[in-house]
Amino acid sequence: MSSSATAIPAETPLLSASRLISQALSLLRDSPDSAPSQDAISQLQLSLDVLTKLDPYIESHSAAPPAAFEGLAQATVSEDWAARHREGKTAFPLGAQFSAGAYEGMFVAQVAKSIRAKRVLEVGMFTGTTTLCIADQLPAGGKVIALEIDAYLKDFLKPHAEKAGVSEKIEVMTGKAKDSIETILKEVQSGKAEPFDLIFIDADKEGYQGYFDQIINGGLLAKSGTLLCDNTLYKGSPFLEEGSPQIEKLLAKVPGISVNNAVALRKFNDNVLQDKRVLSTILPIRDGVTWINWA
């Protein structure tokens, strides 16, 4: 099972839809004008049951994360992220929902294991839940290099990585991701380092296209490598037509959606699909994961 005792908030298209259905049910039940259709309520309730039980079922029937994951998940959920941002320890306001969680962390780790990855690049780490899962599945001598803007988060992960016994497999580079990628590019292009077998992007959404261009144009991804990009279904927004009543209602009624992120990810998805250098498939895993290989 990939689920842990600590539930990390998930933000997925299914959750967006379930919130909307829940609101519709409330409106039908509270309607003062006419008796609502019991069949309609029954059907909506069934839809809500299916939507809300899918993610928990998937998590409970997928591979479990390493034992040290639970402590990291607890620390992620219990941390006062608003206070850390006020103190200047994080560059942006953060929250536990920024974590990919056990299920997705283990999915990325299983990809790493299945392709026999030894060098992994993670663009955007947050508290390192995915980092920990990946490191646990890497062979001896394997390394995951995680890029994170906040030094505080490097320190946040450290005791949990030590407890898991994977500290030697994790290197955290702090600062702006684009600058860290440029540093790594120079090492790879000079022959001092090898390209990466697996790259996972889960950082600022408006930066995805730039990171993709750096990686693909610079040859950071090995020819047999895999690039995974998170949040490419971003709460259901990319597949609703831009400017349509549906997208406007989604933005208004589902909390936490950034218009800029929605627009950036829609454009990113379009650009990746049209890029003849790569093959891509969007998987409906949590908030959407795009699997990319060289064509």
TrEMBL record:
Q: Which family does it belong to?
A: Belongs to the class I-like SAM-binding methyltransferase superfamily. Cation-dependent O-methyltransferase family.
Q: Which organism is it from?
A: Pseudomicrostroma glucosiphilum
The entry's protein name is S-adenosyl-L-methionine-dependent methyltransferase
- What are the protein's GO molecular function terms? O-methyltransferase activity; S-adenosylmethionine-dependent methyltransferase activity
Keywords carried by this UniProt record: Methyltransferase, S-adenosyl-L-methionine, Transferase
InterPro entries, alphabetically?
Cation-dep_OMT (IPR050362), SAM-dependent_MTases_sf (IPR029063), SAM_O-MeTrfase (IPR002935)
Q: Which Pfam families match?
A: Methyltransf_3 (PF01596)
Which SUPFAM superfamilies does this one have?
Answer: S-adenosyl-L-methionine-dependent methyltransferases
One GO term under biological process is: methylation
Q: Does the keyword Heme apply?
A: no
